[in-house]
Every structure is written in C-alpha cells, then in structure tokens.
Specification:
The structure holds three protein chains of three kinds.
Chain A (H helix, E strand, L loop, with lengths): L14 E5 L2 E5 L5 H7 L6 E2 L6 E2 L12 E4 L6 E5 L9 E4 L14 H4 L19 H13 L14 E13 L3 H12 L4 E4 L15 E2 L2 E2 H14 L3 E4 L2 E6 L4 E6 L14 E13 L3 E3 L12 E3 H9 L13 E5 L2 H12 L4 E6 L12 E3 L1 E7 L6 E6 L4 E5 L2 E5 L2 E3 L12 E3 L4 E3 L8 E3 L9 H18 L32 E3 L4 E2 H9 L5 H8 L12 H12 L3 H4 L11 E2 H5 L11 E2 L3 H6 L3 E5 L2 E6 L8 H14 L2 E4 L4 E6 L3 H8 L12 E7 L5 E11 L2 E6 L4 H15 L6 E4 L4 E7 L3 H6 L17 E6 L3 E6 L8 E7 L3 H11 L6 E2 L2 H11 L37 H4 L4 E7 L11 E4 L11 E9 L4 E8 L9 E6 L4 E8 L9 H4 L1
Parallel strand pairs in A: 1-7, 8-9, 8-15, 9-12, 15-28, 17-24, 18-19, 18-24, 19-20, 32-34, 35-45
Antiparallel strand pairs in A: 1-2, 3-4, 5-6, 5-7, 10-11, 13-14, 14-15, 16-25, 21-22, 22-23, 26-27, 29-30, 33-34, 35-41, 36-39, 36-40, 37-38, 38-39, 41-44, 42-43, 43-44, 46-49, 46-51, 47-50, 48-49, 50-51
Helix pairs in contact in A: 4-5, 4-8, 6-7, 9-10, 9-11, 15-20
Chain B lengths: L1 E4 L3 E4 L4 E5 L13 H10 L7 E7 L7 E7 L5 E6 H6 L3
Chain C lengths: L4 H9 L17 E7 L3 H11 L7 E4 L15 E2 L9 H12 L1 H5 L10 E5 L2 H16 L5 E3 L1 H7 L14 E5 L3 E2 L2 H14 L3 E3 L4 E7 L2 E7 L2 E10 L5 H6 L7 E13 L7 E3 L6 E4 L4 E12 L7 H14 L7 E13 L5 E4 L5 E5 L5 H18 L13 H4 L16
Parallel strand pairs in C: 1-2, 1-11, 2-8, 4-13, 11-18
Antiparallel strand pairs in C: 3-7, 4-6, 5-6, 9-10, 10-11, 12-15, 12-16, 13-14, 14-15, 17-18
Helix pairs in contact in C: 2-7, 2-10, 3-10
The chains are: A alpha+beta, B alpha+beta, C alpha/beta.
Pfam families (chain A): FAD_oxidored, Fer2_4, GCV_T, GCV_T_C, SO_alpha_A3
Organism (chain A): Rhodovulum strictum
GO biological process, one term (chain A): tetrahydrofolate metabolic process
Chain lengths: 982, 92, 416
Amino acid sequence: MSRIEGGLIDRSRSLGFTFDGKRLKGHPGDTLASALLANGVRLVGRSFKYHRPRGILSAGSEEPNALVELGTGARREPNTRATVVELFDGLAASSQNRWPALGFDALAVNDMLAPFLTAGFYYKTFMWPKSFWETVYEPAIRRAAGLGRLSMQPDPDAYDKGFLHCDLLVIGGGPAGLAAALTAGRAGARVILADEDFRLGGRLLAETHPLDDAPATDWVAAVEAELASLPNVRVLSRTTVFGAFDHGIYGAVQRVADHLPDPGAQVRQSLWRITARRAVLAAGATERHIPFADNDRPGIMLAGAMRAYANRWAVTPLTRPGQRVAVFANNDDGHRTAIDLVARGVNVLAVIDPRPDAPRLGEYQLFAAAQVTGARGRLGLSSIEVTHADGRAHWLEVSALGVSGGWNPNLHLASHHRGRPVWSEGHKAFLPGPDGPAGLSVAGAAAGQGTTHAALTGGARAAQGALADLGIAAALPALPAAEDRPAIPTPFWHVKGRGRAWVDFQNDVTVKDIALSRRENMTSVEHMKRWTTLGMATDQGKTANVTALAVMSELTGKAIPQTGTTIFRPPYTPVSLGVLGGGDTGPHFRPRRLTPTHAWAKAQGAVFVEVGQWMRAQYFPRPGETHWRQSVDREVTATRAGVGLCDVTTLGKIDVQGRDAAAFLDRIYANTMSTLAVGRVRYGVMLREDGIAYDDGTCARLAEDHFVVTTTTANAGLVYRNMEFARQCLWPDLDVQLISTTDAWAQISVAGPRARDLLARIVDGADLSNASFPFMACAELTVCGGLRARLFRISFSGELAYEIAVPARYGNALMARMIEAGADLGATPYGTEALGVLRIEKGHAAGNEINGQTTAQMLGLGKMVSTKKDAIGAVMSRREGLAADTRRLVGLVPVDPAERVVAGSHLFAEGAAQRTETDQGWITSACFSPHLGTHIGLGFLVDGAGRTGEVVIAANPVEGMAVRLRVVSPHFVDPEGGRLRD
Amino acid sequence: MLIPHPLLGPRDAQEFTYLGDASLIDRPDGMADGAEAAFCDYVYLRDNPAGVHRELWFHEFGDRSWLVVTRNTVTHEILGAELAADVARRGR
Amino acid sequence: MRFSGFRIIAEALTGQKGWRPLWRDPDPQPAYDIVIVGGGGHGLATAYYLATVFRQARIAVLEKGWLGSGNIGRNTTIIRSNYLLPGNEPFYEFSMKLWEGLEQELNFNAMVSQRGILNLCHTDAQRDAYRRRGNAMILAGADAELLGPDQVRAMYPFLNFGNARFPIKGGLLQRRAGTARHDGVAWGYARGADLRGVDLIQNCEVTGFRIEGGRVRGVETSRGYIAAGKVGVAVAGSSSRVMAQAGMRLPIESHALQAFVSEGLKRSIDGVITFGAGHFYISQSDKGGLVFGGDIDGYNSYAQRGNLPVIEDVAEGGMALMPALGRARVLRIWGGIMDMSMDGSPIIDRTSVEGLYLNAGWCYGGFKATPASGYAFAHLIATGTPHPTATAYRLDRFARGHLIDEKGAGAQPNLH
C-alpha cells in the first residue's frame, strides 16, 4: 500500500481512528492526513462551490481541500485541516459539505452548471420576480452554502488565557527559528519559541539534506534538548502565533489538549498574550502550485508536501503497488521530490518542467520545456496530459502528481500592521517590506533565505541583531554545514489552455474567473478578490493570492508590483472563538459584585437581580406569596406603615477631602455646596460638560474639609473618573483629594414612620430627635455598642428615613440586628422593586429619567443650576436648543383606574394623529402604587409644566395598547414633604 | 498596546480608560464673556490628526492618574507620556 | 448591458465573451458641475441619485483608491431602521424603503435580505427602553415587535438561556431589517452612476480645495486640478483630514472598529442578533461565514486595524450569548476607520464655504444609511434644501444644542 519505509512515526504502536465511519489505523507521529494517505484514502473533501472531489494538497496549515469535521456531538469541530490534526487513538473524522456521501454528492451538479456560475454571477440574477430572492433563491443558496456544521450545542471544553513576557519571541521552529532560539537562549535572554507543529524542526523534518553529514533530526534533537535545559527558554509546541499587535504584543494559541481523546481536567486551548521586546518571524514558506486544466484532482498535491509525506510520515498518495507518480515543477526544488521518492523506491515516471534548460538532477525521466495540460480521474488521479514545446501531447498514467511553482515566504505577521510586502524579482516572490511591526525581524525562508544554510545563519543573525538592540551581546553559535543551493523558480505561473485551471481550490476560483474579472474591469487586486471570492476561503489565499496576482498581471500586461500587492490580516490561521473568549463565559462572563448583606438576604430567600455587575435583592418572597407583586406590594406597604430596610451599598460613595474641597465641589455640582454647613446633607445634581444632567445624589459635609458624595449605582465609576479628571486636569492647583469608598462602607436605608424608633435601639447614645437630628442632618457616631458608623437623614421614599453606613464587613450583621431589633415595629426588608415603587410614588428621578438625554430643567431641577458660579456643564446647559425644550417630568395616572401604565409608551394629545411629528413625550417609569391603588407613571411631556389635569393618550403600539392618562404632579405621596421632615 | 506610565513603567492599555484630545485640559472660563462660543469649540471640535496626537488616558484600573500620552494615530507608536496634572499646571 | 438570468445563460453558451466592464475608467475632465469626493457607498449613491432622481449632469466621483474601498468594503452588512429619536428614525426608515427596492432600481443583486434583527434585553429597564424605541419605530412607519423570553427562545434556542450571567429577558425584533451584500451595494451604485454618464475616477486623491470669495471653485487632486460648480465630500473615516484642507474643524474623531468573519459554516443563524449585556452582534452571510463584531477599540486611530483586548471582548460576548460558538473559528479580522461624531449621529449639511457640502459622522452605522444618505445628500446638493428626513443632521446642531444622542453618552465619541 502507500506506507513506505522510514519516517518519523512510531510503528511500534497503532492508533485506531475513523473516517466517515470507516475504521482505520495509523501511528503516533501521524497527522490525520498522513494516516488517511497510509490507508489509501485519497478523496477527503469537496470544494465549496462546485463540490468537486478533493484530496490532500499540502502538509501544513495552508491546506484548502482536506477539511473535515473532527469529533462528534458537542465537540464536533468543523473545517478542521486534516493536515495539521495530530492523530490520536479514537479520533473520529467525517467529510463535510457533501450529501448524501463523499463519493456521491448531489450538489456536484453545480460542476456541470459551472458555465452559469461564473465569478459574480449572483450579482446579475435572482432578481425576478422581486419576491423570489428571499422566498426561493436565497433560502436555496443558504441551504447549500457553508462547509462544515457547527454542533449548535454549548462547547463542553474549558479555555484559558495568560500573559507571557520575553526578550525575544521566535515564531517558528524550523532551521531559522531553532538557530535564533539557540543564539538567544545561550546569550541568557528570556526566549519564547513558538511552533505550530507538534514536533520541532519545521522543514528539516520533511527533507533529507544532512546537517554536518548526519540526519537533520539529530541536530534538531540536540537543539531541542539544549533549549529544554535552559531555564530562560520556554518552548511552546502546538502553538500558533496568530497576530502581531501594537507595541510588541503577539497573540498565540496553544492547543493544549487537541491531540488527546479527551482533555480531562486540562483546558482545551490557551490564549497567550505575549509581550515581546523583540521578535523573529521564522515561519518558513508555503509552496505555490501551478494552475492547469483539472489541476484539482485528488492525488495532485504540492511537490514539497509529497516529499514531506514520504520523508517524515513514510507515505505516498499511491493506493496500489505498481502505481506511479510524476512531478510538475518550474524550479529545481520540485525535482527534489523526484529524487527523494526514487531513493525510497517509489516509481517516478517523469518530471515535467517548463524550463527548456531544466536540469536532470537524479534518476528520473525529464520532460524539459514541457507542461502538464490536463488531468483525468474524478475521484482520484489516473493520468495527466503532457504537452511539449512543439505542441505534441500525450497522456501518462500516473496516480499522483507533485506540483511546484516555487515558494512564497510566510511573511503574514510582518504585514499585520498593514505594511506592504515588496516584490523581489530575484526571488520571484514577495518579501517582507520595510514597514513591518516595530521590533519584528524576519529570518529564514520567510525572509527569502531559501536554503537550509541561509535559514540557519539568517536565524542566528536575526536573533543576534534583535538582542543587540536590547544591549544583550549574543555570540553566533557554531551551525552545522548544510545544503546551500537556492531554487529560484522560472516565472511560469499557469498553463494556458481551454480547460478550467484552479487558482483558489476551496472557493473554486479558476484562471477563467480572473480573466472574466479583468473583462468586467474588476482589475484592482481588491476588486478581483471580491468579485471572484479568491483568497476568502479558510486558507485565506495562502495557496492562491500570489498566483492570482501573477495571472492578473499577465492579463493586464503590467508587472506584478504594478498590478498590486496583497497583505494579510490576523489571524494567521483561524482561531477558535472559545479560546479567544477564555474562561470569561457563561456565569463568569463578568465579575459578580455582592453587597455586604448578600448572605443575609440569601438566607431570607431573596430573589436577586443583576444591576450592572452587582447582584441585588430584588424582593423577599414570603411563604404563600406566589407572584412577585404580592411581595413587592407588601414591602412597600410595610415601609410606609412601619419601617423598611434596604441595602443601598451599591450607590457610589466618594470621599472628598482637602482645604479646597468645598470650592472643588462647587465646580462639580450644578448647585452650590460650599454653603453647606458641617453636619448637613444637600441634594446635588451633576451635569456633563455638554449641559446634560448625568447624575444626582447627596453630598454630606462631615467636616469643614471633608465631604462624602454619593452617586447613582450605574454612574459610581463614571462620576469618580470625571471628578479625578476635574481635579487633575482642570484644577490641579486646588488642595483636594478623592477616594472611592463604595466598597468600604455598607449602607442600609431605614425608611418609614418607625425608622427613628428602630434606629434609637441601634445607635449608641445619640439624640435622634427631630430637633437635634433633623431632615438632611448627618453625623459620625457609633452603633451597637461602639461600631463606627455614619448616619444620614435622607429620604428616597418620601418617608422619615435614614441611611446608616458601617464598615462593609459589618453590613451583614447590622442588617440582621436591625431586623431583629425592629421586629415589633414591623421592620421589613425590601428589595430593588419596592425601592423603585417608593421612589416613583415620591416622584424621584432615577436612571430611567436621568438617562443622558435629559436636562436639569426637564427633570424639574432647572433652578438648581447656579448662574453665579462656573460649574461643569453650566454654560452649555443654557444653549438655545436645551433652554427652549419645554418637556417636563410629570406624573401620570390612568383615567380608568383599572388600566395599566406602561413605561416606554409615547404620549399624545387626545384626538391627535399618532406619528413621529405629533409625539409629545414618553413614559419613563411606571409601577403599581399600593399607596394609590392604581398604576402610576412618570414621564416627560411637552409643555408638561402647565398641563396638570389634562388627559393625554399613552400609545404603546408595539404591544397594541393605548391608555388615557391624566397628568398629575410627579409627587404622588406627600407632595408637601411633611413626612420626611417629621 | 502598552502605555509608558511615567511613574509605573509600561502598563497594558487595558488598565486605562481613554477620553480624547488633550485639549480638554484647556477648559474655557465659564464666567467670561462669550463663554458659550468658547465652550462649543472646547466640547465639540477636534483637530483629529492623522499623525501625532496628544490625548488623555485615565489609569482607572491602576493608580488613577490621568496621563497625557503622545501617540501617532497612524502607526500607534507612542512618543511619550506624562502626568496630566503636570501638563495642566504648566499650562500645556 | 442589462443583467438577467437570460443574459447569464446566453453568455454561458457563448463562452462568456460578451461581458463588458461594470464601469469605465475615464480620465478626469477639466471641469464638472458637481464633484463628489469619495467613491465609497455614500459617494457613489449620491452620484447615482444626482444623475437619476435629480437629473444633474457633468458629475464626477473622485476616489483616492479603488471604488468601494471605504467602509462600504469593510463592515458587517447590517441594514435596519430601529432608531429611537425623531431626528433619526424617519431617515433610517426612508433608507429601509430604498433598500427594499434597490435591486430592481439598480438592476444589480445587492442581496438585500430582510432576515430580521433581534436586539436582546437583559434588564427591565432595558426592556422599557426597547419598548419606547419600538413604539418610536412604529410611529415613524417602521415595523417593530417586542418579544418575551419564550418567544426569543423559540426563535433562537441555541442562545444561552440556562447558564447566563445576564439572563435574556426578551428582545426588540425588526423583521424588515437584515443584511445586504456590502460590496454589491457599492458596485450596483457605481455601475448605475456610470451608465448615466457619471465619471468614476479611481486613484485620484483630493489634496486641496480652491476657495475664492467664500465659494468653492474646484479641487486639487493627485491627477491635477478639477474645477467644480459644487463639491460634495463623503469620505467617512477621513472627514477631518479632508475638511481640514478647507480650513474646517469638525465635531468628529476617527476611531478603529474591528469586525470578524468565521470560516464558512452550514446554516446556523437565520437573522441578526445583538447582545444586550456586552458588545457583540452576529449574523451569517449567504456564503456561510458568521459575521460579527463589537465595540470600537476606543482610541483615536487611522490605522485600519485594532488590538487584542477588543478581540477578546467580542469573543467573550459571543461565548456568553451563544456557547456553541466555541468551536467556530475566526477566519479574518479587519479594521475600518469610523467618523465618530460627538453625538453619535451624522452630518448632511452645507458648510461655511458656499458650494461645499459635507456628508460625515456616520460612526459605525453608515452602511445601512447608504441609500438614504446618497439620496438626501443629492437632494441637498441639487436643490439647496435638506431632504425632509434629514433636516436634523445639521452641522450647527452642536452649537445650538439640538443634539441627536441615541445613547445619551454625550460629547465623547468613543462612547457612541
């Protein structure tokens, strides 16, 4: 069969795997591709558009054809390149994009229809009748489109992220990369060597050239051992550096457990963010093919890949004894495939080389000045047509063909910062340009250093140069003697002829498509790519782009550099979303902040709700309560009748201290704070510099030079940031210091007519009478026998109310103590729902009203914006457009008390047509008010100040509702404010 | 990106919050005549250069200093960073 | 040449010899009545409507690179009219109506696909805000539906319902929203404009404006001076740079927005879904790639590329919303330069220079606006008055305080 002698596989062990359900065997060291070839499997996949039968083209991550679904169930991974999958016992792979079977695919009919499906055809049709695009054509296209299938089940595996730092990152573990890592490692630099393969050595593993007269793998093993012994070197195998980002940061994915049947307790993959002071890109090169008619037959592969399969994996693409191979190459390197195969006893029929002066470098038949002009064998190559310079053509029976059109340096990362590669006429290839990422140098085949000798010395010198930049002296290591025969291809880019010659295999882009693109004036490289979809397949044009550019250059008669260049974007090879997301998924998507009373609330059976990152108690259901409204109504009623307690720690708290603290706050708040007496609290509103209201809260003066500012929960971080901006950037000469103390203090609201009675049982010896501790008083005192606390007499509910703050760690105990101490007073915990009802009943604005689009004036706070001082936002709040806005916050009650008031409804004058132009406002907040026994709402209404008593329509067409509402004062409860002052 | 913090050395840009052009330091006097026009320019208009840009970054998940970072908006190369308070005190 | 299925069959049978260039490559004339600077979607659409609806002649579009090389060539292809504010919603609904007849209008299949956009909500306050927005949409003649969590689950059972940090509480659905093939839109307008005599001039960069007596006389370009009666600038991403040549500072910052496409997958997601608790949205192209994106990188940039933190943030959002994405792979990441305006809304207006018009500030929402933006800009240039749906997009709205701030984020472009 196709397994031959030698290779870097462990024949002492067998690994069982399946392909399309068929049980097959391979060995450790195999890839899925090499194991498939060893089992005589040549047909592996289907192309995207024409569903052409496809085999294995390459031996690396550039593979466009041999894509499989790997794994089963929720672990099924579509579009996996068989060429890079490390074989393991129990591996299950399936072919994809075929129905009903790989060998017989119904959609291969597309291939017969190919003349109708040329580049861009879909832009020109499917337009009649109009409705058919979305009802007939597009659904059919979407059913057929795509390659592999996503499982649509949650990914069961874990992923992780980490940060690494080094002096030198070496990308690629071939001869250049190993020499670079060795040079830097010996110099004592911190080195990371990342290689995408599971075995170090790169192209050295695929070639037979000796190093110092010994097998190259000996040298690789020695270097690997030395690197492993150096504590300053970290070798990351199975790791792809996929992107070069700013300031020496590289993204890399390590496939930790992809080669294991089950990851077990390990993560499947890790994302490394590597910060490297310098980097050497030694990613090698990718071989080009040469398009000719039907060059996509299974069995036709890159010559270098064929050589790699023979030398490293000891397989050929042949399926039966007696079958023969041929090689089609425009350069000497391709001939090496023939030499190596002959040496391994494979029957090489001929090397076909378009160069008239092509050398014969080994024991094989050479057809110089000849071309391959056709191929037969739908499911596997059976013969090729060779055409000679004189036009004579004949068919040769071969079962495999290696094709070499020269090599393209893998310069991708060097163009990730949009630096353009430059065309080298000497190399007949694009080389990395001068404006690559800072700190990144390129070595080895990636830099056009095409021989083993050049790669070794190039890698060592690149490392030496990079370290010299860092002031680290590195000696060049003694490198082994190596072959040094460059193989520059002749500029023979494709075989002309009548048949279809594939340029981009996966997306089925042929030379004819490029010609059509030219005819339709889609000649700029970007237009050509977009018109034909060339280079958009999963290999990102690694095997297609340069060839396509050369073909277009021939068609337009312009030189390649004038035709265009092609740059690459990250990622170098596709990266799973799982690893990019890391562990921050599911319940761990964002941190969970818990309030100080969380444990107590949980023990009470509270229902929690997400408020930003906080989890807050939403309500506290009691036995027998089956609907949240029952609990909330009870909590509201209990608070207004007795006393309710609510954890309000999440409100932002900012400590402001310093000689100029008062002056500073005058500039932060729209209203004046410097006149506030010590021991008093004032309500304040903050504007953005554009004059819009953005936060409100209280400001307490604990001492002449000490204030405590509270903010809304949502804006705690933003207000602090803005205050620091004002302090550092606007008024750096003010003597003021800020610190956020949100998490330092547990704060509990105590509200209701019995609040004072309850607090009297908690507070140590203080006089809380109205006379000595009136509304808007504050004090530092102790509670529960000596515990440091702050007490603020402020009210969000409209009741007699306080907020008491203690060091955060005592919050849980304080809540429990107060509930216990107030049992006879009816002390009831309430959650955010009741908090919302209480504040709507009182007409206090919250996030729904202060939403970044409203002014102080709209909120009814316009008079607070002082004109006597310069505060942030004051000037801009007076602009004509804001000043002339007549919308005001109003209260709304249903005319029919049985009706609901729904937030998000729009307000219209009764009888008016309902459309954008007649829109008069909207309802911001609504709830059922236990106090009034009806639904109530707050909203903004045009000319709202003068419309009390008027009936308006609340239109909610998205839910098919319209309700008549009466405009009332927004203060539904105790509008005179007597209760909170009692 | 890495921000070269003048006190803390190179820090990952993820520790910072970005505000915008460093001209935001030059806040007009709100009590002066013609303040509204000056504020309209200050709040809304930007040079937005393709090239060297002085800009404000807040070390929110760090030491909470505001920095003025000089950075090229085409290459993202950072040419320097200093404490915004220092810049503000010397009047840019 | 008229495109049709019959033409494709005829060409297939005659060796594809009859296809003609989609547009000419003319050399610039010394003078035009109207010069549009910028051969992206908005510029090409403007030229198209100037030549068709507004019957203008002697029009050129000047493009510094290749046609469609701006943000029309690098976006996530979403079309929708699900805005809140009266300054925006009627305009985007006008755009949606133009999308709905675009292929027939242009004789070019731009693959407008009304597969629906679902904005998910995760809190009660968010649902209230979506109700307000959905109502605003309906009041402007658009369509909107408010879905409960069960309806969302029935539509997209693979979203994270069981194990989410921020549970899905419902969503706002606009069924007429969807996607369009972005390049096809640019090419369709370009071909339509070319057919009506508009000169589309590629590789022609504007390097200056000739302004005399407060009036624009023409533009200096990399291919020489071109005189013009009127000049319309539609160069989102580069607006500040270009308008600086006319001595103007704009309420705009340039920011990088990254977008992502996965490898081709069999049909997985029918419509467009946006996450309400993080920066992530996703759809699937007709080719099978999952197209998704998130927030801008957040700092001023002209680099057309971004950095890892946002890439990771987008992936976190995707995984949090749809845990099956773990085994889908990101194939390509690209970056575009956004004209981030100071209130998150665009500008279509005259300028202080007579005859010089500006179309700018589209933030990352310009694609869906392409037809209406072109139409409204053409209306303004041809008639001197703003189109009825675009009256709010004035340059002086910032100074006057008539902002159109959908997010309520204020004068900080990276928050919009």
